[in-house]
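User: For my dataset I need records formatted as: sequence, then structure tokens, nothing else. Please produce one.
Assistant:
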Amino acid sequence: MDAGKVVGRVVSCLRDLAGYGILLAGVLIVWQVVLSLHAVQRSGYLIWPYRTAVFPAGLPWVVVINVAFATVFLSYMVSLGSAADKTLTKEIPRLPQIGSIAHLAGILLAVIIGYLNYDDLVVPMLYSQGVDWIYRLAFALVVAGIGLAIAFEIWQAAQSAMKSRSPVITLPQGPLDGIRREEGHDMVCGRCGTALPGAAKYCSHCGEKVTRGFGEGGEGKA
């Protein structure tokens, strides 16, 4: 593939994913701007049965707003990973694992961001029961699982890349019509088709070891 086609595919991938990237950046900017507003910082508490040792007066509105923005951001992050999967699989059909790696990477980032932003909502409930460690354990297990899946896809991609670079040699099968023969030679090399004398042990052209067999009409072959 020439350099022009490679550049064209890269530009096509970037164009397909640019929309998701711009949308993510916009959500992130609005998210941080809203949380920095003085009115949000002093918005008080949400009145509902959510009183724990951490938030005895109730759950602060700023936590609820933060979780809402985090949820929107995570959904777009997963969508970006899915879009990257489809785009890369289309552009690199010989290595579909690359798309899967991008998808899993998007999910991993979403899990990490969710862990950092949902703790104020989930941990107080668990802390009041003395089992706040469950939150950290669940996060570690999920991250480990996604990490193993990514490692497996990378290994699969490496195996596929190695196989695609390995030369494929097809030996002649069936009748020997059309294979080069010379006068006084009664065998042909099964690898390269060079005519060989009956006493030959190795092909004089490619070095292949001669094995006695018979083609159509009793013709010997290597």
